[in-house]
Amino acid sequence: MCCDIKRRFLLLYATQKGQAKAIAEEIQQQAGVHGFEADMHCISEMDKYNLETEKDPVVIVISTTGTGDPPDTARKFVKKIQDRTLPPDYFAHLQYGLLGLGDSEYTFFCNGGKTVDRYLQELGAQRFYDTGLADDCVGLELVVDPWIDGLWLALKEAFLLQKEKEDMSSNVNAVSSSLTAAPYVVHELNLSSEVQNLKLEDEGARSSDVLSQTSVDVNLRPSARGTEPSLVHSVPPVSQSALNIPSLPPEYIEVQFQDAHGENPHLSSLISEGAAFEVPITKAVQLTREDAIKTALLLELDIAETVFDYQPGDAFCIICPNNANEVEELLQILGLSEKGEHFVHVKVKQGTKKKGAAQPRHIPERCTLRFILTWCLEIRAIPKKAFLRALVECTSDPGEQRRLQELCSRQGASEYTRFIRDCNVCLLDLLHAFPSCKPSLNLLIEHLPKLQARYYSVSSSNLYQPGKLCFVFNIVEFPACPTRPVSRRGVCTGWLADLVTPLLHPNRSATDTKGGRPSNEKISIFARPNNTFHLPADPSVPFIMVGPGTGISPFIGFLQHRQKLREEHTDWEFGETWLFFGCRHKDRDYLFKQLRCFLENGTLTHLKVCFSRDSSTAEVAPPKYVQDVIRLHAKDVARVLLKERGYFYVCGDKKHMADGVSDAVVDILSMEMEVDRLEAMKLLATLREAKRYLQDVWS
User: Fold this and answer.
1) Which residues pair with 11 in a beta bridge?
2) Cα–Cα distances in Å, from 348 out to 136, 319, 357, 443?
3) The FAD-binding FR-type domain covers which part of the protein (predicted)?
């Protein structure tokens, strides 16, 4: 830049789980180095910025929920820019760059970012920088890092063009109307050369940045222990490379220990909106046999004493804690075992260099250290590269320091993905692998994200079972591996399984159960309504349900609800219902054999099942997967969707099932309508848009 004044740009983020905010903070931190000042706000803080009058460039980082919606923090913003009464030049003055975050495992990849991008364009806003779409399925950093690298030149060019426009505007009254076109041509050439010079200057600055970042002694690396890299061991070329590592994030949190007297806050204080309800678990049933590959449980909650309401197809959230043993282990490694019950006060560090530093909202004002590690921080989170960079400074062994630097460097990007991201390595794993690393408590609070509530589909109907809420889940298992030598269970599913042991095994004494818990356990839940995954409003409309494994969960609620409606309204017309269900073994994990009851009483018109791992002696092998069974009923599927304008619901695993089902539907539409595959895909997209092809999937 031609002067020392830092140019301001507006930086907005919309986050669901903290990813977008962390990336925005990285942009804010780098901005100063490149001569800019990022005015950063959450996109929901609409009282702190005004796009209608914004003159400076705007940078937006936005994530996407699993259902393809913008994050909760962006709801008001999106609703505002969706207003069809706004004129097409409403944001004609606005120049912006957008970075969208998503996961290609889901159908609506980066749809949050795409939605905001589309509406800004429709309202006349101009991009000063190409939109970036980062994929968490392969690693956000593969797009995020180069997008941020290119942002600074784009901002410089945007400010340069802005200045030229301002100069031209201010001089227009002093310019004679007889001016020839020649000076204008010269001016344009000068502008072009200025931009080229900026590019060269920026490349030079970037080279010097690289030099300053790579002052890492290549001799400070772990000694050779083989030819294959691992979490703790590197090999050439990474082990011999100069490294581009992130700049050190400034510390901004200060923790003060207080006395050990008082009470922790209620769990309801941990949610930002809505109400939480503490409800008892009244029933637990293991739906799978002991020799099944996965263990599926059905839990029943008593919501009769609450105002909690739901529809079949809705989801709800469970506030769950981290594993108690892992919390104790972390306290021990941090040297804070005796401080677990002490209350702590978390505040912003005085004089911090972090701009916009604020106390984390997910940490209550007054609570114990154990409460923070148990209920507030996601200690199982995969550490981001900025966290690894901060951990370098807490590590005393030179070889361990070097390896952590490699893992957070650009040169070690593939090894970060292989040994940390793909292996679900968490902070505890790193502290065991790098024993000289002794981070402070404030560093953990700065870098560990909020412990998120876990979502589950409702598997019941309030009409059929008043005052009850049921849900089904598999106990998630993470087997041991070389990078992570201990096996683990899912944070929430493992906790729930321990919690209901007395209900599953009532004959055991309390001391025989894990933790010796009584059978009247309560959990805290709150609503997460689904706006679309519901039964058709018109009961005469037919619908098809596809739900292998625990994907059948919401459809049990559908069928219970439909059965009750049939009993109460004998004069109504009800459309036909199809259910495609699949599992591995008929005798081990056929979760709801009582589906036959729905078939026998007419609630369910067609039940089609398949078993992928059962052997068959039939001359023609039966289909193994639900998508194969769907193809066998192509004409009926096409009839329901096209002729009778029915609904198609899919619930379950995204990668291994939902994509296969949508491919089968595309093939059916192509065959039955006699059109090519592209046209069939367009028709399926139309069905999605009309909310007649609906998915509730997970990866």
Assistant:
1) 40, 59
2) 31, 27, 7, 12
3) 274-536
**What string of H, E and C letters represents the secondary structure of 364-402?**
CCCEEHHHHHHHHECCCCCCCHHHHHHHHCCECCHHHHH
**CATH 3.40.50.360 describes domain 7-162:** yes
Strands (E), 80-219: 95-102, 126-127, 132-135
CATH code that applies to domain 543-697:
3.40.50.80
| Predicted model pTM | 0.80
**Residue pair 11/39 in contact by the 8 Å Cβ criterion:** yes
At 287-341, the pLDDT tens digits run 999 999 999 999 999 999 999 999 999 999 999 999 999 999 999 999 999 999 9
Angle, helices 181-213 vs 141-171, to 10°: value is 150
Q: What is the pLDDT of residues 505-563, one digit of tens each?
A: 877 644 444 444 445 789 999 998 777 899 999 999 999 999 999 999 999 999 999 99
Q: Which residues contact 81 (CB under 8 A, 6 or more apart)?
A: 116, 119, 120, 123
Residue ranges covered by each domain of the chain: 7-162, 273-320+453-506+518-531, 322-350+360-451, 543-697
Contacts of 333 (CB under 8 A, 6+ apart): 428, 431, 438
Q: Could you give the 3-state DSSP secondary structure of residue 628?
A: helix
Task: Tell the CATH topology of 322-350+360-451.
Answer: NADPH-cytochrome p450 Reductase; Chain A, domain 3 (1.20.990)
* Structure confidence by residue, pLDDT tens digits, 556-590: 999 999 999 999 999 999 999 999 999 999 889 88
Cα angle for residues 11, 16, 21 (degrees, 5° grid): 30
Quick one: tokens of 427?
A: 């902070």
Say yes or no: domain 273-320+453-506+518-531 is CATH 1.10.287.3510.
Answer: no
Same fold, 7-162 and 543-697: yes
Q: What was the pLDDT predicted at 171?
A: 59
The whole-angstrom separation of Cα 683 and Cα 666 is 8
